[in-house]
Every structure is written in structure tokens, then in C-alpha cells.
Design a protein that fits this description.
Blueprint lengths: L3 E5 L5 H18 L6 H18 L3 E7 L2 E12 L11 E10 L8 H14 L6 E3 L6 H9 L14
Parallel strand pairs: 4-5
Antiparallel strand pairs: 1-2, 2-3, 3-4
Length: 160
């Protein structure tokens, strides 16, 4: 059995984080044509979500399998503004990004990353977790379904 280690990402991990963000961008680009090229978006998107992590009590976790970096998850704390949600349900954890290298998928890495992010958010008062997934990302949707997630809201888009 191989050991999956998940730890907080450190500044020295930036090259891995850029690689994973580019991998996520490439995966989503295969599904959705509006995604920018990975080499155009990876660094700026990582910087964008890193700023969110810093301002929204979040974390970036890096997964290692047998000592090799193989994936990451980015989570933040969010708060519903408005009175349409019960006060006890307004603070939640949000999964910004999740990526695992293709060659190690199916070995439990995503499960350990998700569990770590959930624990991080629950320890900070999250009443629940949320994430968004592309409709066409069937593999991710199946993973979330198996992991106990359920659709909550459906967003529509109209191209003009």
C-alpha cells in the first residue's frame, strides 16, 4: 500500500501548484471551450485563488504519494450575505479547486484531499461544504456523488 500524505502547501511548492493548476485548466478546457489555455491562465489563476485563501480563512493542501507531489485542493470559507438562508447555515466551506494527476487517479488521493479540506473548514465553523463542477465533467461528478455530495443549485448560462 502506498502512503498518501497531505500537508499545507508551502512557498517551495509553487512550481507543483502551477503544474496542477495548468492540469486543471487543461482538463476543463477539454470540456468547456471558454477556458483559457493552461499556459496563459495557470499562474494568474493560482495567484487569484491564493489571495482568496489569504483573505477567506482558506488553505491550499498538497498531496504526495510515495514522496512525489501528485495533486492539490484549495478551499476557502464563505458566508452567504442575505437573510434568505438561516443564520446557522450561512457560513460554509468552499472547494475552489481540486486536481489529481491522471496517472494516480483512482488511488484515493482525491478522497484524502477532500477529507482534509472538509476538516479544515469544519474546524472553522462551516455548517456544510459547497463546490461547483462543470456539467460535462462526468468523472468529477461521479466522484462527488460517490463521496456523498448532492446537487444543490443549478446555474444556467446563455451565450449572446
Amino acid at each position: 500500500m502506498t502512503d498518501i500524505v497531505v500537508r499545507l502547501a508551502e512557498p517551495r511548492d509553487r512550481p507543483h501548484l502551477i503544474e496542477f493548476m495548468a492540469g486543471l485548466q487543461a482538463s476543463e478546457r477539454e470540456i468547456e471551450a471558454d477556458r483559457a489555455a493552461p499556459d496563459e491562465a495557470a499562474v494568474s489563476q493560482l495567484d487569484f485563488v491564493t489571495a482568496d485563501v489569504a483573505s477567506e480563512d482558506g488553505a491550499i493542501f498538497l498531496a504526495e504519494l510515495d514522496g512525489k507531489a501528485v495533486g492539490f485542493i484549495i478551499c476557502t470559507m464563505q458566508e452567504v450575505r442575505g437573510s434568505y438562508i438561516k443564520p446557522s447555515r450561512r457560513r460554509y466551506g468552499y472547494i475552489n479547486d481540486l486536481f489529481v494527476n491522471e496517472d494516480v487517479r483512482g488511488q484515493g488521493v482525491a478522497e484524502v484531499l477532500m477529507q482534509t479540506a472538509e476538516e479544515h473548514c469544519l474546524a472553522r465553523g462551516a455548517s456544510h461544504m459547497q463546490l461547483f463542477v462543470l456539467v460535462g465533467n462526468e468523472r468529477a461528478r461521479a466522484f462527488y456523488d460517490r463521496s456523498g455530495w448532492a446537487p444543490y443549485e443549478i446555474f444556467y448560462r446563455k451565450l449572446t
